[in-house]
Amino acid sequence: MSNNLINIKIPKYNLNYQIDNKKNIIESSLDKNVKLAYSCKSGICGTCKAKIISGELNKNNKINHILSESEKENNIVLLCQATAKSDEIVLEPLSPLPRKVEKSIVREFISEVLSIKEINNNTMELDISVPKRFVYENKRNNYVEVLIPGKKINEKYYIFGECEENNINNGTVKIIINKSEDLEVRKYIEANLIHGETITIKGPFQENIPEIPYNKPLLFLVENNYIINSLNLIKNLILMKIDVPIMLISGFTSKTEIILLDEMHKLQFLYNNFSYKITLLNNKDSNNINRFHFGKTTNIINKVFPDLSSHYIFIYGENKFIEENYNKVIELGAIKNNINKL
Predict the structure, then answer these.
(1) pTM of the model
(2) What is the domain count for the chain?
(3) Which of 39, 56, 289, 321 has the smallest set of CB atoms within 10 Å of its CB?
(4) Are residues 202 and 225 in the same domain?
(5) Is 101 within the bounds of a domain?
């Protein structure tokens, strides 16, 4: 195979598209907004059976018990288990394709403020109305812009998604609002964030998930409100069935600045491969049950991970935070190519 991109052709449905060969055919196709027939994605149900017309696949013979010997002899494979072996694959799915996945189209919408929840002095959780045309994929970092009269550069707010594989538009989305340092923006937000008021939004915009190795433990080092993006990414990784340990170490200035603690707890409760720790810069915020750590994230990384040579690491925060934590993980053996900074 010449590179990581391969060509998939499905003549029966006039499909011709390129995918990455690092994932199975089902997952790689979903990344390209092509939804082939599947159900369990575990090689048990057989919904994703397809005949190879031409090309070669790695069939993962350890999980193909649902296939009869006759099917194997006739080049029938499970697309949820198979990855590409040649540069071009021609397939004929045995189950009909579901309705085509709608692509996200950026539009302007008038949204009604439905619910407001103050998380701390600087952050609010907002539920706003969206029409049926507002379509986005959970397996992306999605955000909207709030259009403010007289401002050329719009404020960007991330959609905080649920950890569910199939996103169903129920007429609302949740966004996290940080109080802007721009006084004009802050006044507009404070004046319009009232139940029943309307705001103009533009979106949904999408940010792709960075390329991540699927065989390395993942470590997230995050400060303050950068946790919004990080938790969205972690949810996306869980949706992608990445079954490696995921650790989140999040630093906040004080207990009053902590956000999304309920979401972190929920993920740790539901998914055995996720865990988190919180550290506070203000050591006056002590508590009797030692719920949190104190000091910078750099002070506790080596207590948890004395050797980071096998990890893939995300560092999200302001420049000083990134520099300090980058130097620390390098000191602990992290490989430069395995560090993602934002």
Answers:
(1) 0.67
(2) 3
(3) 289
(4) no
(5) no
